Amino acid sequence: MGLVGFSVTLYVLIMMFGINPQTSDPTRPNTAHEASIKYFYLSAFSSALILIFIALIYTTTRTLVFPEVQLILSRPTTVPGFD
């Protein structure tokens, strides 16, 4: 939970301090807002991907202990009809 709180404050800091008021051009789009939104989407996508792969490993092996996962995944499997 602390990592999520840290990330959200980091997005806000990117938006707030990504603009230099002395050199900002009103005709240019605000790239700091765009960068913080892209950073948020990237972190959300990567977190979801990690959770999906953890769930895939768990549903395949029914364990998350690394030596047991390695043992289960190293066994040769046969599919009926594809011998």
What does this structure look like?
There is one protein chain. α1 packs antiparallel against α2 (31-61). The chain is mostly helical. It has helices at residues 2-17, 31-61, 66-74. The protein has one domain (2-20, 29-74). The longest helix has 31 residues, at 31-61.
How would you concisely characterize the structure shown here?
With 83 residues, the chain is mainly alpha-helical. 67% of the residues lie in helices and 0% in strands.
Descriptors:
83 residues, mainly alpha, 3 helices, 0% strand
User: What is the count of β-strands?
Assistant: 0
Order of helices and strands: HHH
Q: Indicate the overall shape.
A: elongated
Mean pLDDT: 80
Category by helix and strand content: mainly alpha
Number of helices: 3
Rg (C-alpha, Å):
22 Å
Helix content: 55-70%
- The N- to C-terminal Cα distance equals 48 Å
The poorly predicted ranges are: none
Q: How much beta, percentage-wise?
A: under 5%
Total domains = 1
Largest pleated sheet = none
